[in-house]
Amino acid sequence: MAGSRARTKSLSTEQIIEVATRICDEEDIEVLTIRRLASDLGVGAMTLYSYFRSKEEILDAIADYVMGNFRLPAAEETSPSAVVRDLALAFLEMMREHPSIVRLFSTRVNTTPESMRGAFEAVIGRLREAGFKDGDAVRVYGLIVQYSLGFASYQAPRQWGRQDLSGGEELRRQRQHFYAALPRDDFPNMVGLAEDVTALPSDDQFLFGLECLIGGVMGRVGAVGDAESGHPDAAPTN
Q: Rounded to whole angstroms, how far apart are CA atoms 200 and 104?
């Protein structure tokens, strides 16, 4: 009993959320249960109910935790195009580091001060500093988040697209072979373009889409002080 009380006394909300986040990221959201979380924390299940009333509250807290800890990229390049590019890559990095946020971000709205400050307020502020005016900064923020979220969701089950993963090259070879081996009469385009089709969930595809997005943004809304029209390819960070 003394050991149990000691563990309970040292338990913190942040510790609970960190362990819950790890379970969701490394395994799956469905794997997370109060009983499983309590077991990983070394406490009784009833102890967790004094912190959270349900699994849904824990999932809300995970989303708040991840969004609140969003890492705003260093402002090394300050042109509007560069800022949009860096922010999109930073959001993709966050979604790779915490794959559970892709699903959580699609199913709930974050309204805690911490989550709004990290991945909302600070990002819009960076866009305004870069020269985007008022409502344009908000609309560009939306494009960045929506594009990064959509791509991360598409890439997640298609791991052959991850150029940073060990074994990725072999996965790409297998996938290309799969497309190339389809009946040519039924799938002439996919067979003939097997290599290109395989690359759809790749980092290069993300960068291609990102440059198209930036070009469209600058052509439609523009920003003060930007004359950039292109940028050399660079792989997203891990």
A: 24
Q: Measuring CA to CA, which residue among 226, 221, 228, 224 is closest to residue 128?
A: 224
pLDDT digits (tens, 9 = 90+) for 50-85: 999 999 999 999 999 999 999 899 888 889 999 999
Alpha helices in the chain (DSSP H): 2-10, 13-26, 34-41, 45-48, 55-68, 80-97, 100-105, 113-116, 122-129, 134-155, 168-180, 188-192, 194-198, 203-220
pLDDT exceeds 90 at position 186: yes
What is the rounded CA–CA span in Å between residue 172 and residue 158?
10
* Polymer length of the chain: 238
Which amino acid, one-letter code, is at 87? L
Single out the residue of 81, 89, 167, 180 nearest to residue 132, CA to CA: 81
Alpha-carbon gap, residue 100 to 54, rounded angstroms: 18
Which residues are CB-contacts of 122 (< 8 A; sequence separation ≥ 6)? Answer: 70, 72
Answer for the pair 88, 147: CB distance below 8 angstroms, yes or no: yes
Question: Residue 3 to residues 7, 8, 32, 70, 81: CA-CA distances in angstroms?
Answer: 6, 9, 25, 36, 56
Tokens read off for 141: 């923020």
Instruction: Report which of 222, 184, 210 is spatially closest to residue 87, judged by C-alpha positions.
Output: 210
- Six token digits for residue 216: 């469209």
Question: What mean pLDDT comes out for the span 175-180?
Answer: 97
What is the reported pTM? 0.84
Give pLDDT, residue 167: 85
